[in-house]
Amino acid sequence: MVSFDKNQIYIIDGAMGTEIQKRQVESKFFKYEGIDCDGFNDILVLTKPGLIKDIHGDYINAGANIIETNTFNANYISALDYGLSDEAIDKINFSAAKIAKQAAKKSKEEVYVAGVLGPTSKTLSMSPNVTDPSYRDITYHELLNAYKAATENLI
């Protein structure tokens, strides 16, 4: 863990998804192991890593001293929506951290990397079934395991 100076202002990068959309990435880069992952920006750390590294670099050049990994949906739960394996998600998280660290090391200034753990498409707080308020389509332990694995691969 890092101890931050309370007297310094830190600037975090901006939206990775917006930057990816601005670059109009070809659909072929959203395919992985024969699976169409259209809209799953996290897959680009495996299929177009140079693009992700360039985006990190652009944010650093704009003054960001904290950059975030491209892992907003990289968890076992969200992966099910795309048909990706747990192994693919592990690889995405590991690769995203590696790419961000490489971009940070290129800077003359000190740049920190923050691992991103985004939401899932499942919820524990509300039932997805209006006729059964007690129903949940995921368990606490399933969410815990998904986030634990993502965290371990980001570190």
Task: Please characterize this protein's 3D structure.
There is one protein chain. The protein has 155 residues and is mainly alpha-helical. The chain has one domain (16-154): TIM Barrel, CATH 3.20.20. The protein has helices at 16-22, 44-47, 49-61, 76-80, 86-106, 140-154, and strands spanning 31-32, 35-36, 66-68, 112-114. The chain has a two-stranded antiparallel ribbon. It is globular, with a radius of gyration of 17 Å. The relative contact order is 0.16.
Largest sheet: 2 strands, antiparallel
Portion in strands: 5-15%
Return the average pLDDT rounded to an integer: 95
Shape: globular
Helix content: 40-55%
Uncertain regions spanning at least 5 consecutive residues = none
Radius of gyration (Å): 17 Å
Strand elements, count: 4
Indicate how many domains the architecture comprises.
1
Order of helices and strands: HEEHHEHHEH
Characteristic terms for this protein:
globular; mainly alpha; 155 residues; TIM Barrel; 6 helices; two-stranded parallel ribbon; two-stranded antiparallel ribbon
The gist of it:
The protein has a single domain, classed as Alpha-Beta Barrel (TIM Barrel). The chain contains six helices and four strands.
